[in-house]
Design goal:
By secondary structure, this protein is α+β, with helices and mostly antiparallel strands. The chain has one domain. It contains 3 helices and 6 strands. It has helices at 4-22, 78-91, 108-111, and strands at 31-36, 53-54, 62-72, 96-99, 103-104, 132-141. Strands 1, 2, 3, 4, 5 and 6 form a 6-stranded mixed β-sheet that branches. The N and C termini lie far apart (81 Å).
């Protein structure tokens, strides 16, 4: 016969295992998606280009060519999210990117939408849940 303490430990272990299996498996690598807004340049830029990252719109006239969105989770490095957004804006030919504040929430629905991806090094078919989103407006000057 099992002691009441052993039964209690077994019950706690079973409850913990059920809790772990119910938790979504949230990736730590950032996901980047591109939502085209305007006309993209015919020739794209290398993803390691050096375009400025702006916190506010520039004073000179510009047009938004795409919204570049990056998604992450609590274990995702903020710098890695920023770099992924910058690389994607570079890859689509932006001359600068205006970055909005990071938003918190549940972004699974947005991520599972169909987006066009311009980079061959990222997976655009993820349906995982993400807790953070950063949106950058990829711009070209007029």
């Amino acid at each position: 016969m099992l002691s009441s303490q052993t039964k209690l430990l077994a019950l706690i272990a079973a409850a913990f295992a059920a809790f772990l299996s119910a938790c979504p498996n949230r990736p730590t690598k950032p996901l980047v998606l591109t939502e085209q807004v305007g006309e993209l340049p015919v020739q794209f830029t290398a993803p390691d280009c050096q375009i400025p990252v702006l916190k506010a719109p520039p004073s000179q006239p510009y047009e938004v060519i795409a919204r570049v969105k990056t998604y992450g989770n609590p274990d995702t490095d903020q710098a890695e999210m920023d770099q992924a957004l910058h690389r994607e804006a570079c890859a689509i030919g932006a001359q600068a990117v205006i970055v909005e504040q990071r938003k918190e929430g549940e972004f699974a629905d947005e991520v599972s939408m169909t987006h066009m991806g311009y980079s061959t090094i990222r997976d655009y078919t993820s349906t995982a849940e993400y807790a953070y989103q950063i949106v950058g407006l990829a711009i070209r000057y007029k």
